[in-house]
Structure formats: structure tokens, C-alpha cells
Request: fold
Amino acid sequence: MARHDRLPVYNFHVEELHCYAVGGVQLLVHNNSFDELADKLRNGQIKEKDLQRMGLSAEDIEHVKQQAKATRPREHDAAKIINDITGSEKAVQIALEKVRLSPGDAAALKELEEATAQLDGIKKAKDIIDRKNRGGGQ
Amino acid sequence: MNEHLDILERCKQLDFEGRVDLSISLLSESIQNSPSSDLYFERGCRYEDIGQFGLAEDDYSYSIRINPKSKYFIARGLLSSNKNSDHESGLRDFQNALAIEPGDANTYVCISLTYLSLGKLQRALENARIGVELAPQVSDSHSCLGQCLLAANQLSEAANELHTATVLAPAAANSWSILSRVYRKLKRFNEAKVALERAIDFDPSISNQISYGSLLFELDEYPKAIHVFEEASKGNLTEVQKVLIDGYLGLAKKAIHDVQ
Reply:
């Protein structure tokens, strides 16, 4: 759908979370540079389909793909990469978004399960200490 | 504390009968007559249990103001970090707790888990190792270190720590569950299955059932996986749990269809 109005545009930065859905159609947008996109593509955090959804042209997508290939890939460990970058709660949000973008993708589902299990493990460990700390309390 | 023993005993009885609201009323009355840090703390615990996190935080803060103790700081820190996802406030409270009791292993475990929540793996590992050094006989310290090592992908070391945690506390469901994740990553699937079954024995939560279903799916045991997911789907699910169950059910049914 094309619209030929003149509209104000804004350049802004969303703290920490660079990938977010906008508007009624929940269009996924991204404010990362090509370097960051290439890095995430290489690490498996985003897929080519995500780049299309971000509105990148075919030429830009090719550029990001080439850049991703040009650098030596690191060992793929999605849980660790996500953990390093974002923390366990945001890891779940990002993994959930990936499952929604690629329903039926077993790898995305496993990543979501791992991120959820990690968050769950941390919360349960804190609950255990909380109960012990209360001691004489309830 | 002694002068409040009668009140606290009555509160515990009311809690046991499921009348937490009456327990809170009794504590409120006692606080009005004779405010004390322990009474505020006890009421805060009960507010937290019924999901009144703002009131719980206020009560923990009153306790700290009257008579700062490390357990009050830990309670408020865990409330901030675990219930309100305010990890920075949690860390500040844990540091205050350490200033009062510098050698408390539990506080280091709290700090480690909070750094793990924030994705700061190095700091999480450092604090977890201090926790183990201070309390090598405590299961929670090893479990925390195992969890950090898993996040850092140091799987053999993680398996050792979590194994120690389960030896020290054989009914620690969370340690079994995390150990199962480590074995799974090491492709030691039989051990992963046994560990997860132990976890479910002690904690048949939906999250453990989902892990079990996905493990069966990974082992190509599709009919069993479907059964586990269908049972899990009868529970009260979070949004993420629903997405996981629906996703795995779809994949397992498709796999059976493809085989036929």
C-alpha cells in the first residue's frame, strides 16, 4: 500500500531494546546500523525475513547478508549471545518475537524455551532464598 | 521480638488456616499499639504473599528505618528484583545487607542471581563463586554457580556444581531442572530425562512439564510429547507458555503426519 503524503518523521533511539512493533499492523522496526544488523544476522538473532519486515530494500538486505558472511562466525549459542546483550527478561521478549515472526520454526521455539527456562530457574532460585530468609516469618 | 511471640504464633495459625487477611489485621493492630521492625517485617511478608507488593515494600522500608537488619534488606531486594524486575534497587539492598553481614553466602547468591537476570555474566560468576567459597555445604550456592556456568556455556563445570547441589539437597527441584538443561546441551539425553523426572516429582509445574515435552520432542517421541503438552495445556498458562505449547504441539503433530 503506497501513500504519497508529506509527513513529519522522527529519528529517535529506544533505550536498550532496538527492535519493536509499531502501529495497528505491528510492523517490526529497527534502528540499528548495518554493522549491528549483520552481527545479529550472523548470530542467528534475526533472520532475512526480519530484515524484510524492517523495510530494508533488497539491495540493503544483500549488503547486510554479505557483511554477515564477511566476518568469521562465532560459535553459535543463542542463549549465551542473548544473555550477554540483553538480560534474561528481555531475552524472553526477543525470543517470543522471533517465534511470532516465524511460527513453526523449531529452532526459534527451542530458543524461546531456553530463554524461558533460564528466567524461570533464576526466579525460582530467588524464591527459595526468599522463603529461607523469612525464616521465623511466614 | 520476645514480646511479640504470642502475636506471631497466632498469625502463623491464621496463615495455616488460610486467613492471611486476619493475620494482617492482627499485625496492623499490634503495630498501632507498639510499632516494631519485626512486626512491620512480618506484615510485609504477608502483603507480599497476597500480591500487595507496594504495601510489602513500604513495610520492609519501615523495618529498615527502625532497625536495619540484613534480612530486611534481602527481603526488600528480592521483592524489587524478583517481583518488580527492578534489579538495580535489588542490588543496592543486597549491598546494604552485605555491609551488615559481610560473610553471608546467601547475599552473594542473591547478587549473583540478580546480575544473571541483568545478563552480566562475569559479575554473576564472580559472586556465585564467593557464595560457594563461603558456604560449600549449602546446595543453593552450588545451584546458583551451576546456573551461571550454564549461561556461560561452561557445561561440564555446570554439571558438576548442579550434581553437588542435588547431592546436598536431593529434593531441590530447581537444581534437578537446571541440571537437566545442562545434560541436554551436552547431549546426554538419558540423564537429562532422569533429572527432569526428578524435578517433576518435587515440582510438577507447567514450566517443568513444558521442558519434559520438548525433551521428548527432541528425542522424536512425538506421541508422548503430545500427551505431555496436552496435559500441560490444561493448567493456568502464561502467554509464553501458551505459545510454547501450541508451537510444540503443532510441530509434533506435523512430524507424526509426515512419518505417516
